[in-house]
Every structure is written in C-alpha cells, then in structure tokens.
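Form 7-S
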Amino acid sequence: MAFRDLFRDTIETLWAHKLRTFLTMFGIAWGIISIIPMVAAGEGLRVGQEKQMETFGKDIMIVFSGRTSLQAGGLRAGRDIRWDDTDYAYVQQESPSCKYVLPELGRDGLIVVSPFNNASPNVVGSLPPFAEVRSVKVGEGRFYNWDDQKYGRRVAFLGSNVKKQLFASREAVGQTITINNLPYTVIGVMQSKDQNSSYDGWDVDKVFIPFTAIMRDFPEKPPATAHNIDHFLVTPKSTAQHLACKGEVLRALGRLHGFDPSDKEAAPIWDTIEGAKAFSLLIESMKLFLGAVGLVSLFLGGIGVMNVMLVAVRERTREIGVRKAVGASARVILRQFFVESSIVVFLSGSIGLGIAYGLCGLVDLLPMPPFFAGLLPTWRVGVLSFALLGSVAVMAAMYPARRAALVDPIDALRYEPGG
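Output:
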C-alpha cells in the first residue's frame, strides 16, 4: 500500500470514529495544557524575584562595623570597631577574589535647597563603581566619574524622587543646589526603579556625591572621627569566588583593626549572595511541586489516553481479521495503526501546546506585580510532556494491535466486541 493511500485510509478511519478520536486527542491536549502553565508560573516567579533583587544590586556583600565578641591579639572583647576612609584601598589590594571594595558614607539631616524648593534627603558618598554595584541607572545626564572623585568636585546625582521634589517637571541637569549652604552642580538624575530591599533608605530618595566630597564637606560627627565611614560594599569577581572574597575581606579588616576574622559580631555582613541562593532553592522547590502536580495531571491524562486506545484497537479486531484475510501482512497492519496514533498525537499535541502557550501569552498581557514576571513557559517542558503523552498513546495503540495482527484471521473474524 502506497503511503498516500495509507494516509487517506487512516484519515477516513479516524473520521469514522470521531468520538473516540476526540477523546484521545482531548486527553493528550489536556495533559499538556495542565502542566505547562504550572511550571511557567514557577519560572515567572523566579525571574521576577531575580529582577527585583537586581534593583538593589547584584551579588553584593555589605560589611558593617560592629563590636568584638572575641579576644584577639591581647585586646579585650567588647571593643567598638569603626571603619576608616583609607581601609578600602588596603582591603582591595589584599582581596584578589573581589571585584570591588567600595567605601560608603551616608548623611541624613542635611538641608538640600534648589531655586524652587528644599528637601532633607539622605546624602550618600562613594566611588564611581557604586552606580554599577547598586544598579543605579542614569535617566538624565551622568553619574560622577573618577575625575570628580580625584578632584573632590561638588557635583550631585539626584534620585528620581528628589529631583521631583526639588525641580518638579523642570530641567535639573546643570542647575546649582546647595547642601548645607555648600553649592553643588547637578550632573545627572537617576532612572526611577522599584527597589525591594534597603539598608539605609530607597535610592530614589537620595543625593549621590563623590566620596572625597562627602568626606571633606560632611564628615561623621563625634563620637565617630572625621575619617570614619559607615560600611563597605563588596562584590566578588564571580559567584564561585564568593566565599573566598568574603574570607579575604574579613582577614584584611581583622589585621587593620585587630579583631579575629571569625568574629561575626566585629564585622556583621549582609550577604545578598547567600540570600539569593536560599531563595533560588525555595523557588526551585516550588517549581518541582508545581511540576509534580502537573505531572499527576499528565499521568491521569495518559491513563485516559491508554484506555481509549486499548478499547479502540480491541474493537477493531474483526477489521484486522478482514485485512489479514484479504492478504494484508502484520507489518502493514501495524504501520497503519502507527500512522493513526502518530497523527492523533501530533494534532492533539500541537493543539495542546498552542493553547498552553497562548494562555500564557494572554495572562502576560495583564498587569503583573513587580515580583512576578508572568507565565514564562519553557520549550523543554512542552517537548517533554508532548513526548511523554505521545509515547503513551503510541504504545497503547501498538501493543494490542501487534497482538491482534498476530492472531489467526479466522479467530480475529470470530471476535465479538465486549464478548
């Protein structure tokens, strides 16, 4: 039998058993539709949370100063530790696994005045890579650079909310503001962002100035000294070097300030990398759970498909007997059943994938909360579910068809459905 004749005969057979074909196709399509959106929801939550965490900064460790809880080098426990403005250069030199070691000093209570309004935002000073480390994106103008840092220029980069408060809808770049009566030139405005965590306030509510400028114009007040800073921002060269970078920083600071590097109270660290790993593990567990729920639905759909296919083949035992009686070989009969089941699997699988991906696309058109990126289906899940249900359908058809094809034509013709 030519393949074209076989294909036409197969389509006619499927059309003659429309209800049975529909039930089989529905089982396969439903199994695919049930699992893809579930796994896509888990993926959307993971991606959304990653994006939210990156608004704060990616792969950051914030090293605060604390109080010693262990004796070290003959010094008593209970000493207050304070970082100095020169520590960062030594720590950077002694930490080859770290990409950046940045000092940061924040001052609140300062009065910022523009020609149109005034405010009292948090004023923050650090080094130029701060914008990269803390995901501070430029909306207008520029962030301060190494020349600004080198010469201690009085330049200011405004958070988006501060710009609105000081200038409303007016142009801010190039304008002069005063910070505690000292003139600063506005060189840029931050792009607005949704920040989900903070250690000293939201970035949109801050004014950013070079580190040399803040140390000269607005140093810490007693009991701190004019050379003390708040904390360090540390990033490893890669996540694989995270622990090495962390250890190098603690050892360098321990040598500078005479504390045991294992003393967690002396140098408390907010490690966002460890937090991200823990959250990633939680999300992966949730995706596995959703995938397991979808897999159960897929399994139940597979059982339905198997039952329909088994009954369909058994009821066609007499048809197989007739085909064998007129000279059809077992191979030809098996080939027809294979083509039938393959067509059913391909059509229903394609419909299921189309509906599942279309449903995900429609849901993604709706407004999403910041922590959820929408339903993000992966082709891997779609192909896997398609292959699994397709294999079940083909095997469920081929096994009884092979047994029936090997039966003597006389016995096959005597077969009574339901008997």
